[in-house]
Amino acid sequence: VDLDTARQELEEFIPHVKNISDSSVRKMAGRDLMRFKEFKKQGIAVKFGRFTQKENKQIRKNVEEFLELTGIDSAEKLLFTSRYPKDKYIIHRLKTEHQFWEKISEGIPRPWRLIYYRARKMFDPNNYKGRYTAEEKEQLKKYQALYGNDWKKISELMSRSNLSVAMKFSEIKSAINYGPWTEEETQKLMSAVKDVIRRKLITEDPSSLSSLEQSDRDLWIDREQLYQPLPWTEIETKVGSRYWRQCKQKWNSILTRKLTRGQKLYRGTNGIRTKITLIKRLYETKAEDASDVNWDEISNAIGDVPRAYVQSKFYRLKVSFVPLWKRRTFSEIIDYLYEKTLPDLEEKL
């Protein structure tokens, strides 16, 4: 299939394919297109977003079967071949001969690249090493001074994942304020969010520039735009005195306050009602995984609040009320909240 035809056929499944590089489109044409067409025949749509528990199990199954097929002795060797320079040529040959990209994607209606990245996250032993020590933080500063933002190299030197070292450096690279937000910081944050959303709107629809400039509406506060993922490391740079996670948390609190007009939805009697509604709605979804939940619908049921607000409240619920919640599946947590916690909350109300 030639490049233009591949891009055209892929657009049915991946609307933003026009923004993807030619080389990536060629790979997707070979590794995804036939699979997507098969899923379409079965009435299954291509998915994005958070992986479900079922998909994670399928990835584990695909990786284990490929290891058994090829004799490669660990998932780390398969997925992080560069860590094993003596074996890398043999592993690369086996992956090519046995069609690794097709095998790892079997049974999962997602682009191969997302499946591959998810597998790397699941099987990377460096992802689960706990908090950084003071020595590691100093090491990270030193390596970043030497190698810049080459996180792949730094992650190998520190035996931490790429994402982990990048995000940790974001937190420690400068003097960060941990106290209450000042009015100046808050204004910088709101201005930064406005800038990135405005840029995104103009990129998606250049003709919107004039209407953006002429409109008296606070366009950047439109609900559908605010719920899109934001580039938090870029926003962190614009704010200057807070790291990305603080910016994200602060923005969610600002957004909640604006949308609820300052109502205290999670305190007192309102707080109990919110918990009850949240548990009931989650139970009614019969979802097996958090990624199967339509959080926007649930946020609408609770009030005009962002989905991040509802998700944070669910997190507090399970931590506060569900014993050994880390060992339970999503559906088991919901069942426990519905059967054990809900009656107590209703009696308290």
What's the layout of helices and strands?
Blueprint: H1 3-11, H2 22-31, H3 33-41, H4 53-70, H5 75-79, H6 88-97, H7 100-105, H8 112-123, H9 134-147, H10 151-158, H11 162-172, H12 183-204, H13 208-214, H14 223-226, H15 232-239, H16 244-260, H17 268-285, H18 295-302, H19 307-321, H20 330-348
Helix pairs in contact: 1-2, 4-8, 9-10, 9-11, 10-11, 12-15, 15-16, 17-20, 18-19
Pfam family, one: Myb_DNA-bind_6
Domain Myb-like: 124-172, 173-255
Organism: Loxia curvirostra
Mean pLDDT figure: 81
Number of helices: 20
List the uncertain runs.
211-221
**How would you classify the helix and strand content by structural class?**
mainly alpha
Number of domains: 4
- The global form is globular
Radius of gyration: 23 Å
Give the number of DSSP strands: 0
SSE arrangement, N to C: HHHHHHHHHHHHHHHHHHHH
- Quaternary state reads single chain
The share of residues in extended strands comes to under 5%
Distance between the termini: 63 Å
Organism: Loxia curvirostra
Pfam families: Myb_DNA-bind_6 (PF13921)
InterPro entries: Homeodomain-like_sf, SANT/Myb, TTF1-like
Protein name: TTF1 factor
